Amino acid sequence: MQGSSMGRRQLLTAGGALGLAAAAGPLLTAPAQAQDTPTASGPCTRITDLGPGIEQFALMSAVQVGDTVYIGSRNLSPTQVIAFHLPTREVVSRTVLGVGHSIQALAADPTGRYLYAGILTKGDEGKPNLFRWDLTTPDKPAVGVGRTEDRDIRDLAVAPDGTVYAVGGIPGKAPALWMYDPATGKVTNLGIPDPKATLARAVAATDTTVFFGAGSVLAGGDGASKASLYAYDRAARTFSNVTPPEMEKDPSLRDLLVVGDRLVVSTSGSTEPAKLAVMDLADLSSYTVTPTGGSVVKNLTANGDLIYFATDAGLHSYATATKVVAPVEFDGDLGEIWGLDHVDGTLTVVSGYGFVAEIDVAAGTSVVTDLGQAGAPVTPQTTMGIAADHRFVYVGGNNGIARHDLRSGKVVNLRAPGEAKDAEVLNGVLYTGQYSSQGMWTYDPTADKQPRQLAAFPSEQNRPLDVCYDTVNELLLVGVQSDTEGGGSLWTYSPKTGKKAAYINPVDDIQLVRAVTTREGVAYLGGDNPTAQGPRGSIVAFDPVAGKELWRLDLPASLTTGVAALAVHGKHLYGLTRKGGFFVVDVPIRRVIHTADHRSLCPGFAAMVTSRGIVYGVSDTTLFRFDPKTFAVSTVVPEINGAWYSGPHVNADGRGLLYTMRGHNLVRIEDKPVS
Prior knowledge:
By secondary structure, this protein is mostly beta strands. The protein has a domain at 1-55 and 378-453. 0% of the residues lie in helices and 53% in strands. The chain is built from no helices and 58 strands. Strands 1, 34, 35, 36, 37, 38 and 39 form a seven-stranded mixed β-sheet that branches. Strands 2-3-58-57-56 form a five-stranded antiparallel β-sheet, with no helix packed on it. It has a four-stranded antiparallel β-sheet with strand order 5-6-7-8, with no helix packed on it.
């Protein structure tokens, strides 16, 4: 089998040294191993281990304390914080937290002794989600000091007296403001200021007031709140709504910063550009609001009257005296920025691409240090989409895509902002649906050094979920979710002509398009609904050229839990729901002809692909197939347990070989069921 002996695998970076935490030297692994696995319905299934899907030091937060930048990991196991020493440009220490999947919130106390970290988790682990690291003894690990019942901590602030405030959220519940008192060790719920908000991502504190910023950047629509800003009086223990009206149309408050006698406020945009406000702390009704050109404004820092911030388009400054927004000069691509601090004329930028940039603002010069080369641990990450052809397999991660060469075994980490949620390879060219609000990206290994944006789509249609190719109309089809507005869309793109279209809410204004497949030039859309109310699980037949619905089908009541995946074989449309329900639709007669309960194999999210005349499915636990005549299910690989971040994927190359994840490793599967 081609590629069954992989030899040395190197973690490299395409297009230069500033890569996704590229290792300082070759990363040696054992040769890829092929094994034959007997199954109940076939003589053998050959599995070839292709090594870790994507390896990098991925990050989600950063804060500078003195001459050291502390950086929180993202989708790595175990969760950890590293310390990057600016004078030596080396990673000098780290602490393992070992809870959850990512660290989005970091904050230091006023003395600079303690660093606090907040955790994101997939489910309530019953463990602390607030940790404290004593920076005077960095060799001693951080300790869990408290637990907020909101599960996820998205932001932290430490008041001048050392009191810690946390915000975040949990799906299906409005976020609260939480307080940790270091003197007593007690965590207290201070209340829910906005009962219609779905997430809080910003908090700031003074001696007298805590500012709470929320909205609905996730699970928006259906009456959910948009951007909201509340002031909590620490003495009176009351909340006041102080949201500038100009910001109320934006989906969410994104960041807060106290600078002297002012409060700086920023938003995430959607149908309008994100905004920046400067408010007078003594009189919060006195403020200025400035629109920016970005879809998000975050990572606020200041130097006197200059406020620096990051957007999806890079770094900018805002002069409070002139109210002018200007770009900050940098020769290169900073990617998604997760840390920004200003000290003595230097901006320290922590990029999701896995590097730290030190920018001398006055001179316009910079020094960039790759964190992997500086000593950060380069380890396997949980993965996103997978796409394959006979030469390369691509695996999506955070701010990068790993390209596996099936001939040499070499792995190259490519840069792509956000997350490649799903992808396809056509004629050797990669096409991705890129979260968040990045549209579609492409990469031609014969012509491109790095992936590039192919097509932009409405920014509120921010979460592409499923990509497939319509061979009849020669269109790429992408099913999409709108996190901020609710509902979703179908994108179409012609690789031949460059023509694109976005059809908003083709199912309805509540259901997103979780799955899309195609048959004889007709797109089949699977609806899902992340909210607790309203319809879910509708199937819509859609003309992707005319942009019109042809017909729709409501699934039986037992299956209305939201569509997880769709595939086509012959005249049959196969589908899986998000709770393991299975159905088959006879397309010509437009009727469900088969249903089954497969929760034991498929308890949640799933993906499907048709290969060699058989429909395969993968869940978080199992790879399985369906008999094309009886629709009976049989297991191909039990306990595959792929290390996915946002749901499993399976793809097939032109030879019919399957690619998915087993644990953190990419595997190729040749299945030979009995005919």
